[in-house]
Amino acid sequence: MSNIRRQSIISSVLIYMGFAFGAINTYLFARNNFFTTDQFGLTRVILIAGNLFNSFACLALPSVIYKFAPYYKGNLKDKDNDLLSVALVLAFIGFVMTTLVGFIFEPLVIKKFSDKSALFVQYYFLVFPYLFFYLFFNILEAYAWSVKETVISNFLREAGNRISVTILIVLFIVCGFSFSLFIKIFSCLWGISFLGLFFYLMKVGKLHFTFKISRVTKRYWKKMALLMGFVYAGLVITTLSASLDTFTIASYWGIGSVAIYDVSNYISNIISVPQKSVVAISTSYLSEAWRNKDLATIQRIYSRSSINLLLISIFLFTLIWLNYDTVMDILPLNPVYREGKMVVLLFGFKFIVDMGTGVNSQIIGTSTYWRFEFTCGVILLSLIAPLNIVLVKHLGIIGAGYSNLIAYTIYNAIRIVFLWKKFNLQPFTIKTVYALVISLVCYFICYFLFHNMHSWFSLFLTSGVYVALFGAAALYFNLSPDILPVWQTMKKRLGIKQ
């Protein structure tokens, strides 16, 4: 657990560095004088469409790598490990097939989006270079996770790409080249992260290619194909569920509304950064624990991930919500972006639910019951699709917030009940209740003290008081087994004596 904690902290720090650049990017996109809301919205729609197409093209290969990497490692020398080579070949086949289908369905895209989102129709073809580089980065990232090289891959995903976007935006502003050139370069930026990870893995000696089919592949290919089939369907369904809100907003309200929605979504997504780190680190450990039938380790990872991610999510959400109006007042943003405040609230609650239930998806996905993830995905899509269509049509972007909160709450509840019934695994303790109560108390103290103040000084004052109150309470009640070790390490690094 100490290794998971250490790598999670390092990854989170690096990823938050990326979020700092992401915040700069969002600020520059949202200013009045650099990009229109439609231009900003186009970058978001290309991103979401690329992610959606990636779910088709990747053929669920990352899940295969997570699940079967320990078998390759335990039975083959590195030079004979063909897992990555096979995955890359299959990914290329998936890319070609998805691209062909994408061009076949171009008339449907024109029909659905030409009225409200004409700019997306004009640059629809740029989804495919975005898909190419993003797809192969994902395959390489999954392999990096399997060999426990998660820090650099997390950095390149969350920070490297955003730094590239920042540089591109600055060049666009300073050099004054056309938006057409800007969006074309934007669609290829994942190539930088892919090459960075490729050369890093090569440098540390973790990159091996062979096109000779190994005995492990020959032995397990049927099980791997079965896993691919179920996970692939589930992944497509899950990604559709996550993408549907953006496309529904673009269709009914235009890509300008997508930009407003994305700013709110980005703000709330700050909460989820530590979840990505914990998932990245814990996946390989869970896979090994299932292989060894070590339920005690799985329960320990489950419960610790739940309380740690709950504490982090409510801490970050409360910090954001306390300062939301202040930030909107002091930053020179286009006033239309204030319309997303309720979206931040609803997505904040969604992330608290999703993170507070721990790594339940990864536990199921690495177990022999991984097929159940497909069932969960079907349930999620069956909930979120009609909710999005109805609520977005009548409520606008706030409707997407409600639909996500409702659907993901039910989605996580089903997975919790499944793990409890099948393996007697459950993530909660009495400290889960303490964490929720403490967060509410700290919030109301800070709200009543500072809610009428809107300045840079009040922002730092409110944040400082809340951090002090929440941190002191978490330490006093020892809400997580990882709090004291982290605190001791911080004191040691800062030179604070006992």
Automatic annotation (TrEMBL):
<feature type="transmembrane region" description="Helical">
    <location>
        <begin position="342"/>
        <end position="360"/>
    </location>
</feature>
<feature type="transmembrane region" description="Helical">
    <location>
        <begin position="125"/>
        <end position="144"/>
    </location>
</feature>
<feature type="transmembrane region" description="Helical">
    <location>
        <begin position="42"/>
        <end position="62"/>
    </location>
</feature>
<feature type="transmembrane region" description="Helical">
    <location>
        <begin position="397"/>
        <end position="420"/>
    </location>
</feature>
<dbReference type="InterPro" id="IPR050833">
    <property type="entry name" value="Poly_Biosynth_Transport"/>
</dbReference>
<keyword id="KW-1003">Cell membrane</keyword>
<feature type="transmembrane region" description="Helical">
    <location>
        <begin position="372"/>
        <end position="391"/>
    </location>
</feature>
<feature type="transmembrane region" description="Helical">
    <location>
        <begin position="165"/>
        <end position="183"/>
    </location>
</feature>
<keyword id="KW-0812">Transmembrane</keyword>
<feature type="transmembrane region" description="Helical">
    <location>
        <begin position="225"/>
        <end position="244"/>
    </location>
</feature>
<feature type="transmembrane region" description="Helical">
    <location>
        <begin position="432"/>
        <end position="450"/>
    </location>
</feature>
<feature type="transmembrane region" description="Helical">
    <location>
        <begin position="189"/>
        <end position="205"/>
    </location>
</feature>
<protein>
    <submittedName>
        <fullName>Lipopolysaccharide biosynthesis protein</fullName>
    </submittedName>
</protein>
<keyword id="KW-0472">Membrane</keyword>
<feature type="transmembrane region" description="Helical">
    <location>
        <begin position="301"/>
        <end position="322"/>
    </location>
</feature>
<keyword id="KW-1133">Transmembrane helix</keyword>
<feature type="transmembrane region" description="Helical">
    <location>
        <begin position="83"/>
        <end position="105"/>
    </location>
</feature>
<dbReference type="GO" id="GO:0005886">
    <property type="term" value="C:plasma membrane"/>
</dbReference>
<feature type="transmembrane region" description="Helical">
    <location>
        <begin position="456"/>
        <end position="477"/>
    </location>
</feature>
<feature type="transmembrane region" description="Helical">
    <location>
        <begin position="250"/>
        <end position="267"/>
    </location>
</feature>
<feature type="transmembrane region" description="Helical">
    <location>
        <begin position="12"/>
        <end position="30"/>
    </location>
</feature>
